[in-house]
Amino acid sequence: MAIVKGPIQLEGNLGNLSFYKRRDSDKIIVRTKGGASKEKIKNSPAFKGFRLQQNEWRGCTALASKLRYAFGGLHRIADYNLTPALNALAKNIQKTDEENPVGKRHILLSKYRHTVTGFHFNRNYPFNVVLRTSTHAVIDRDNLSAAVHIPHLNTEIDLLNIQRLPYFRLIVSLGAVSDLKCDKNGMYAPVVEEMHGISQTVTGEWIPSESVLAEQTIEVKLNERYILLLTDDVSLVVSIAVEFGKVGFTGEPQAVKYAGSGKVLVCG
Q1: Residues 6+ apart with CB under 8 A from 63
Q2: Backbone phi, psi, residue 168, to 5°
Q3: Under DSSP, is residue 145 helix (H, G, I), strand (E, B) or coil?
Q4: Which residues are CB-neighbours of 37 under 8 A, at least 6 positions away?
């Protein structure tokens, strides 16, 4: 490692050299690029374990990606990057597979659905803080549907409107995610591909932020054509979000980016 002295202000790569700054210093540090070559990582016996872990990680990221699809777009309300958290969740499930060798372990979400239940899309203001009611959902797997029950709602008491925006609405989604299994060639694939990452969303009407709402039930249903495809390898995911809006250019309410909160109510 060397430190650059003089007027040179450079960060990045130049040939075989890397220029960068550390958080604890204002000096520019230069070092040669190191590490094994791609060819060595791909073929050397010394990197066999790394290749196996790398292959399993591909399975984890594949499941995490489809989980985002199963949220029905509600992840747009998130105030942090959901991807690392979902990748980690998939990895923890993968580690429970003791029947297959490292590099070919399955990711069986259907055995650990409880780990997705209660997954929050927001850290600063979690859903239960924004909507202070006992919201719950019931899944009907036989009919590929879900019913979300929302008690009587007095927004002055039960709704935390941080930005004091004039409108809000409720959004409910029902999605499906299949278990992933690894074949003898190390390739990950969903058990039920047709249902892997599908979703259906019900978006409520815009409501004035100062309102009193009667008790209600929101129902959401996947296409009936999937009923014959449903197996125990498929998990159904019910998500909910409260989204805030303002009056847009046309005079109609429009969503304000990142204004709201959501979570997974149940995975079953």
Answers
A1: 86, 90, 107, 109, 177, 180
A2: -150, 160
A3: strand
A4: none
| DSSP of 235-262 | EEEEEEEEEEEEE-TTSSEEEEEEEEEE
Query: Is the distance from CB of 235 to CB of 110 less than 8 angstroms?
Result: yes
Kindly tell me if the per-residue pLDDT of 86 is higher than 90: yes
259 token code pair: 């204004």
Q: pTM for the complete prediction?
A: 0.82
- Report helix, strand and coil shares of the chain as percent, to nearest 5: 30, 35, 35
How many other CB atoms are found less than 10 A from the CB of residue 221? 14
* pLDDT tens by residue, 134-185: 999 999 999 999 999 999 999 999 999 999 999 999 999 999 999 999 998 8
pLDDT of residue 35: 58
Residue type, 193: E
